[in-house]
UniProtKB/TrEMBL annotation:
Signal peptide: none annotated. The keyword Oxidoreductase applies. This is Short-chain dehydrogenase. The keyword Iron does not apply. Belongs to the short-chain dehydrogenases/reductases (SDR) family. It holds the Pfam family adh_short.
Length: 247
């Protein structure tokens, strides 16, 4: 686990999974820095974390689509975090994305370039610290195989996973741990209104617990066992079969 004497920085902290993860860290007594495009939306969450767990929690501004944002945020902190987690992601409707190159660019920037760049900036700073540190990127099983339903989002998540894999190798000889999280379905704002199979859908709290347990165990990739099975099968399907499937 990353040193407990430094804060954790959570990027994309308005996400339901991010807030559930922040509550778990706060319960362990860890100081939190919650970052989002509109940090005012996090004021209530910060107050609640401090009230319930007695930890310091600060909300700061961060926009993943601004390449200068992560570096500036990290350099503005009085004490560098030992853990940086990116929950940043965005999935607009696929049919709109497939007709609008600016929307496609925004999907790539929001799910790949932005969060990957933020973690690149974080990795360089955290690997130079003395104690154990970690960066965690939340990708998606959607990156495992392009589907008609969400292939622009899936392609960005696949690229994000590749960057995290590269960072893991790059820092293998340092004390920086690099973990990739690949959720399946989670009941959040992103999936609101979708008809998700209950047996394969996690609550934000369950997803957050899975991530923290994986981080404690020093896992490199965190996937729920059911999704590991599902995607294992999906990946093995021959193209001739896969292309005719609708799911
Ligand atoms: N829910 C699922 O079933 C599911 C499945 C697989 C993977 N995931 C991944 O899990 C992560 C969390 O998603 P969620 O389900 O909790 O949905 P969510 O509430 O929509 O969370 C996405 C987060 O990303 C932030 N974000 C988007 N663009 C940003 C930008 N340019 N700069 C900074 N922050 C930005 C959002 O901030 P704003 O509040 O400012 O919009 C929000 O905090 C995402 O990476 C998502 O792709 C979710």
């Amino acid at each position: 686990m990353p040193s407990p004497d430094r804060p954790a920085l959570i990027l994309g902290a308005t996400s339901d999974i991010a807030l559930a993860f922040a509550r778990l860290l706060a319960a362990e007594g860890r100081e939190l820095i919650l970052a989002a495009r509109d940090p005012a939306r996090l004021d209530a969450a910060c107050k609640d974390l401090t009230l319930r767990h007695g930890v310091k929690a600060t909300a700061l501004a961060f926009d993943a689509r601004d390449p200068a944002s992560a570096g500036a945020l990290l350099d503005s902190l009085p004490l560098l975090p030992s853990l940086v987690v990116s929950f940043v992601g965005w999935m607009p409707p696929q049919d709109e994305t497939a007709r609008d190159p600016e929307l496609a660019r925004a999907v790539i920037e929001s799910n790949l370039l932005g969060p990957a760049w933020a973690l690149e900036e974080a990795a360089r700073r955290l690997a130079a610290l003395e104690g154990p540190t970690a960066i965690v990127g939340v990708g998606s099983v959607a990156g495992d195989r392009g589907r008609a339903r969400n292939y622009w989002y899936g392609a960005a998540k696949a690229g994000f996973e590749a960057v995290l894999s590269g960072l893991r190798q790059k820092y293998a000889r340092s004390r920086l741990h690099v973990m990739t999280v690949k959720p399946g379905f989670v009941a959040t704002r992103m999936t609101e209104g979708m008809d998700l199979p209950a047996a394969l859908t996690l609550t934000p709290e369950a997803q957050a617990r899975l991530m923290l347990a994986a981080l404690r165990r020093g896992r490199h990739v965190a996937v729920h066992w059911k999704w590991r099975l599902v995607m294992g099968v999906i990946r093995l399907l021959p193209e001739g079969v896969f292309r005719r499937m609708r799911f």
